[in-house]
Write a structure and sequence with these properties.
Structural class of chain A: alpha+beta
Radius of gyration of chain A: 47 Å
Strand order of the largest sheet of chain A: 2-3-1-4
Largest interface: A-B, 14 and 12 residues
Radius of gyration of chain B: 21 Å
Order of helices and strands of chain A: EHEHHHHEHEHHHHHHHH
Helix content of chain A: 40-55%
Number of helices of chain A: 14
Oligomer: heterodimer
Shape of chain A: rod-shaped
Strand content of chain A: 5-15%
Distance between the termini of chain B: 35 Å
Number of helices of chain B: 17
């Protein structure tokens, strides 16, 4: 580190005195002029001849970039990649996108302004600015206004600068040397750094732990969840039997669950009539149900010969036998609904329509194995 | 100066043509068309005047000194808030024509009937009268008082103005919001928007700044504002820039919430204003009120140079007119589009307004020479 002076600095009693002095020193053209003041002084930038900052253009460009990226992102998520209709609006609803575009624009612009100012304009982080070690610094942070003539490429005519500053009315002129006080060498700083990072991580980790632990158990809108109402299978003090659920009124019939009525097996053939026509759809549905439930015992052809039958030690009905062939539709329906011999009732598994569809399918199976002449092509 | 004499003569021809067109409008299209235009022009001139009054009161309240050298311009223009009194008087005759709540059917609509305690002709007229008196009081207090200070050089006025300006701001807030709800919003008494007063305020403040900027340009061109520099104009430009963004923010916020909720009781207001011809109108308005001025005013050079700022101010003033027109005119019904009546109203009111402004620009000194802050204000640097 050289001991060449970096600047000559003088104090002025007021902002006006500083403003008056700047042109006088500036015209001597001794080096870069820099002012240090306790508060921003109107018009100082112009007097010092500072170039307009490029930050404005950067902020504008980044803001425009932010708006564009936000719009593209919203178009991609809402209208292209995973379109979901919301509130009956178009997938690409620019009105709904504007707030996000606005926020992202502000975010990009603000970060550019903040980081740009710190890194580009103020050249931070910068340990130990030379002026911090002058005698003038105390006055600058209180009520003094300092003007410094700074070295250009390490060259500075100290005597000429001192004379110029004194001539302009500056007091307490002092020569500023580079910062000699170094960052503490050795492991101390490293230990401090590691400790600081560790402390930061610990704070972040603990905060995150409690955030994750607590947030899910804080219901955002408990009113919806905790209504005053009875829930099925819960107890309730309202009723004598202590149950929240009420049995239906006697004689209640649920939709689509109309019982068959008092029909005997013998009478069923003549009383129950298949309400469905044997259309392609009905037959397809009957086949689908048959192959799901009946096929295990009655077999794909309906002849009751299935590999399981032997193990089961039962003889499922053969639909092609004379007995079953003689049954009317109603009797088959009765057998499905109520069960027969070892066969269980299928009223729970099949709706009445499905049962009748299965009956149609059984008739189709019977005909397929015993087709009359006129069926042949 | 030759232009001083030829100016009124050149404007007399279009003004007379406009007057004839206005009379023809009433006969040919009926009273509703006439009054719709009348209200737009009344509100346009009123909002320029009130905007200027607001600037004067604001500058006193925040004790700014950059604005002292140009304060006389808004002080002069504030007179519009008083001079529109005859326009307001004529506008009151539009109540039975344009405003549905004056019709007998209003009592049968439960929603409107509930508002009739506020919306009725005597109370409405009384509110208008009280507002006009209050504006006159504020104008006399801040603006005429400042012009008196020119001769007396009495610093006591500056102290007094600083003390009373906050009250003027409060009066401004209540009366302007009331005027917005009364004159514009109650054209469709079923519609409601809480933000509407702020929306009209944003336009009003912009109109005030734009009017001030144009007045400054007029005087600077004639060399009557020596000492007004880049630094003073820059603040004016900054205001203009900030408040076009503010206006856009509020205008969009109001639109987006109603668009999103899509409630039939509020969305009809926008529906009739963004369909067909009016959709084009809205986009033109958005360009003039926001996009174009934003792109120009973002530059530091435009904000600080009165020669570059004045066209922007004119643009924004025109956009403010379109804004008011867009709020009022569609109540005439679907398919009623601007035509020669609107041109004749402009032919009359633009020259009349310019003549008024030209005369107003001769009131008092060009700068508040009696204000003790003037010297410091002239030395103002950014």
């Amino acid at each position: 580190m050289s001991d060449k002076p970096v600047a000559v600095l003088a104090l002025f009693p007021s902002a006006q005195a500083l403003m008056d002095a700047v042109p006088k020193v500036r015209e001597k053209n001794l080096g870069t002029l820099q002012a240090y003041t306790p508060y921003p002084v109107h018009g100082l930038d112009k007097a010092l001849g500072l170039k307009p900052s490029p930050l404005g253009i950067m902020v504008f460009a980044m803001g425009a970039l932010g708006a564009t990226l936000a719009l593209l992102f919203e178009w991609w998520t809402s209208a292209s990649d995973y379109p979901v209709r919301i509130g009956g609006k178009a997938f690409f609803s620019w009105q709904a996108f504007v707030p996000v575009m606005f926020e992202v624009t502000v975010l990009f612009a603000a970060f550019t302004a903040g980081l740009g100012m710190i890194t580009l304009m103020n050249r931070l982080p910068w340990f130990g600015h030379p002026v911090l070690h002058t005698n003038a610094i105390k006055a600058i942070t209180r009520d003094g206004f300092a003007l410094a003539v700074e070295a250009v490429k390490g060259e500075l005519d100290v005597e000429a600068a001192t004379a110029a500053l004194e001539e302009a009315g500056g007091a307490e002129v002092e020569v500023v040397f580079p910062c000699t006080e170094k960052i503490p060498p050795g492991p101390t700083l490293q230990v401090f750094k590691i400790l600081a990072v560790a402390a930061g991580c610990a704070v972040a980790g603990i905060t995150m732990y409690f955030a994750i632990k607590l947030f899910p158990v804080l219901p955002p809108m408990a009113d919806m969840e905790e209504q005053v109402k009875a829930i099925p299978y819960e107890s309730s003090a309202c009723f004598e039997d202590g149950m929240a659920m009420r049995p239906p009124v006697d004689g209640t019939v649920a939709r689509g669950m109309l019982p068959m009525g008092p029909v005997t097996e013998e009478a069923s053939g003549s009383v129950l009539v298949n309400p469905l026509a044997a259309t392609t759809e009905v037959l397809a549905e009957g086949r689908e149900r048959y192959e799901a439930l009946c096929i295990a015992c009655h077999g794909p052809l309906g002849n009751g010969k299935m590999s399981l039958s032997k193990e089961y030690k039962a003889t499922p009905a053969n639909f092609h036998g004379a007995t079953v062939k003689a049954y009317a539709d109603g009797r088959l329906y009765y057998a499905i609904s109520k069960g027969k011999n070892a066969m269980a009732a299928y009223a729970v598994d099949l709706t009445p329509e499905e049962r009748w569809a299965v009956v149609h399918y059984i008739r189709a199976l019977q005909r397929s194995q015993d087709a009359p002449e006129e069926d042949l092509p | 100066m030759s232009d001083r004499r030829s100016f009124p003569a050149a404007l007399a021809v279009p003004a007379l043509l406009g007057l004839a067109g206005m009379a023809a409008t009433a006969f040919h299209f009926g009273a509703a068309r006439f009054f719709a235009n009348w209200i737009v022009w009344f509100l346009f001139l009123l909002t320029i005047g009130l905007g200027c009054l607001f600037i004067v009161a604001l500058e006193h309240t925040v004790r700014s000194h950059w604005s002292v050298p140009i304060r006389r311009i808004p002080e002069r223009m504030s007179g519009l808030a008083v001079w529109v009194a005859p326009l307001a008087l004529v506008a009151l005759f539009s109540l039975p024509v344009l405003y549905p709540w004056t019709q007998p059917e209003a009592a049968h609509d439960a929603m409107v009937a509930g508002k009739l305690g506020w919306l009725n002709i005597p109370f409405f007229s009384a509110r208008t009268a009280v507002s006009l008196v209050l504006w006159g009081f504020c104008y006399a207090l801040l603006c005429l008082g400042s012009m008196k200070q020119d001769a007396s050089k009495d610093p006591a006025f500056t102290v007094k103005a600083r003390k009373w300006a906050p009250l003027v701001l409060v009066i401004f807030g209540f009366t302007l919001t009331n005027a917005a709800f009364d004159w514009i919003s109650s054209l469709e008494p079923l519609w409601y928007s809480d933000i509407f007063g702020v929306y009209v305020f944003a336009g009003t403040f912009l109109a005030g700044i734009a009017g001030t900027a144009l007045g400054v340009a007029y005087l600077v061109k004639r060399g009557r504002l020596p000492g007004v520099t880049f630094d003073h104009v820059y603040n004016l430009g900054g205001f203009l820039f900030a408040f076009i963004v503010f206006w856009s923010y509020i205008a969009f916020a109001q639109y987006m919430l109603q668009w999103y909720a899509n409630m039939p009781e509020e969305v009809f207001w926008y529906q009739k204003r963004i369909e067909g011809f009016w959709l084009v109108f809205v986009w033109v308005m958005a360009a003039l009120h926001f996009v174009i001025p934003f792109l120009f005013l973002v530059s530091r050079r435009v904000k600080g140079s009165i020669r570059l700022l004045a066209p922007m101010a004119g643009l924004i003033l025109a956009a403010h007119f379109l804004d008011l027109f867009w709020m009022v005119f569609p109540v005439l019904g679907e398919g009623v589009l601007p035509s020669w009546p609107e041109i004749s109203f402009a032919l009359f009111f633009v020259p009349a307004g310019l003549l008024w402004a030209r005369r107003a620009m001769e009131r008092g000194e060009d700068m508040p020479v009696g204000d003790p802050l003037l010297e410091k204000a002239l030395a103002f640097k950014l």
